Amino acid sequence: MARLTRQMRQGGGPFAPSVSKPSAFQQYKTLLAKDLRQEFRTREMLTSMGIYALLVIIVYGAALALTANGLDIMRMGGGLLWVLIVFTSLLGLGRSFAHEKEQGCMEGIMLVPLDRSVIFLAKATANILFLLAVEIIAVPLFYFFFMSGEPVAPTFPAIVAPLLLGTVGMAGIGTMLSTITMNTRAKDVMLAVLFIPLIYPLLYACVTATTVAITGTEFWIDFFVMPLVLACGYDVVMLLVCWVLYDFVVSA
Amino acid sequence: MSKGKARVPEAGQWPDRLAIPALAAGTVLTSAAFLLAFLYAAPVNGAALDAPELVGGVMVTHQQLISQKIFYFHMPVAIVSFAALAFAAYYGIRYLSTREARFDTCSRVAMEISLLFVVFTMVTGDLWTRFEWGVWWTWEPRLTTYLILMLIVIAYFVMRNAVDDPERRAVFASVISIIALVDVPICFMITRLIPSSVHPVITREGGMAPDMALTVVVALVGMMLVAFGLYRLRFREARLEERVQALKEQLDG
Amino acid sequence: MNAVEAHNLTKAFGTRKALDGVSFELPEGTFLSIFGPNGAGKTTLLRVLSTLARPTAGSASICGIDLKEDSDEARGLIGMISHASMLYPDLTAEENLVLFGKLYGVADPQARASELLEAVGLSHRRLDQVRTFSRGMTQRVSIARALVHDPRVVFLDEPYSGLDPHAVDIFDELIASVRGDRTFIMVSHDLAKGFSMCTHTLMLARGRVVAFAPKEKLDYDEFAALYRSTVGMGVA
Known about the structure:
The structure holds 3 protein chains of 3 kinds. Chain A is mainly alpha-helical. Chain A has one domain. Chain A is 79% helix and 0% strand. Chain A is elongated, with a radius of gyration of 21 Å. Chain B is mainly alpha-helical. The longest helix of chain B is centred in the C-terminal third of the chain and has 43 residues, at 210-252. Chain B is elongated, with a radius of gyration of 22 Å. In chain B, 38% of the residues are buried. In chain C, the strands form 2 sheets. A 6-stranded mixed β-sheet of chain C has the order 6-7-8-3-9-10, with helices on both faces. Chain C has a 4-stranded antiparallel β-sheet with strand order 2-1-4-5. The longest helix of chain C is centred in the C-terminal third of the chain and has 15 residues, at 220-234. Chains in contact: A-B, A-C, B-C.
């Protein structure tokens, strides 16, 4: 009935536009485009995350100064790479709602007739894209600084799979948690305190798969395929849970 | 209180009358399990000895693992802590569906009980690790899972403290308790199924002998009762505190 | 049809009640000012009526549409102007309006944005980032943002905070010019201002309605006295 009255008002002067509710996918695209446009304009997240990643690599340089034997680093490489990714993502995820909170924009979005899970999916997608963008810079840098001296296993390109699965899971649950922590005191610490234990299983699986891809080993199924299947399971379950619970969190 | 709200848990309802007896019975059963563990359950054989030896009037051919006795307490506390977490998540779901502040209190108290038992689990687990494997810490799947569980439960309370608005706090806490309940089994599965190259997964599989099973069951029932008793007492305390607070506000207003 | 109907609205957590049985009916095309001391539940009432918060008990409807049952439909009828601008500072004025226009599903968001910017007198700044705007200009874009989907009911939550007197005058003029047959509901601390703008008043204290009346039945001095005594009540 309300839709009918809206159509009747159509074209009735400068303050009567025709309004029809867009599809969820269209709203998703609009929100995602907004996040990307904002980032292109300020480059806030990408520069801060990129610089942070570089700084972590420099710290590694000092930390590994004495043990920088090529073979050791190859075996630790997967783990070190993930430390880099986890801390860099923490930085990015903590910032991901800063703009929404700053001028009360989140409330503006909440006032729109729009499914709350669309907000989650759009934000999670934006976070995935930002994290991937940083990884595209950080992984080659890591390779350049620590691994270029040694011949790598032919399986090296396979690290893309755990990187992708890990990024999706971390961005998903990270979006959920940063929605919570943007309303708490000591936001950044809170995010880390919640985020790291909750992603531990995913991290464990991804580190195993990445390490195996870097070093190359004969137990391919056990050490590479199995972790990936489990990481995939984690992603699916956790994204579903977050997707279902997001409405409560964002409306609170 | 109106009739429609009769199903909301409140201090002074019938379970409170069971709290003290449950606590007493739980203590007795746990103590009984302690005795059973040492006097009734047969010692578990460790490494084979070079020659049979006479220990306490019994001929033994293997090292007797006294440290294994920890198992009779370690496993029940671990199960109870997970059960408490499940209750916290259950009340979390109840809170989200009814928005009744009481369920948030229930969830929080269940989480406190979970924290208590998780700490016990960590202590017993660590003792076992020390005596059986000779190291203070090993990234063994169960220990890792419980470490993660402990961190999540701690994070839950840190988060609660960092939110001022009570309603928002309740929603966030409920959501975290549900995510924790989902995350913990996944964590166990992942650390268990992925073979660790550093430390081989040391697990003695195979069914429990009847004497072992009996001891574990007695300890488990005992600790469940203790947990229930503690939960009710703590819940009662929390509720009375809330009521005093409400009265104070009424007087102030 | 009434623009806003509230029946026994209650918002509580445990025993703490932010709203305690608020009921009123507001005809269409009116301007309601909500007064009350701090913590009286004004903002909570506004949040409940604008679907941002869920009532514990009771019901409310906007233009006959129940907020609980059909919240999306109701959201389409609501606009909000708040003390926070709800604009993305890094986007331009036009981009902000187009963004919200698209989210609401306005047929031609681009044209709508130009039209609204024209109406609030900021066409010349449409390609500038909102970050570079003064507080008064931001608030004007904020008005345009709230009207992008042609809402029937517009909520104003402390819209004057941070505005200098000149900006307040422009703001009032703009509100009057965009008013049309819309219903406005305003929460403000400024008694004189709120009283002069409104057609109806609602006084809240401790989550309850103290007074609800059309302005013509009220005398300003008496009302001011009531307001002062209510504020006194709220001081705990």
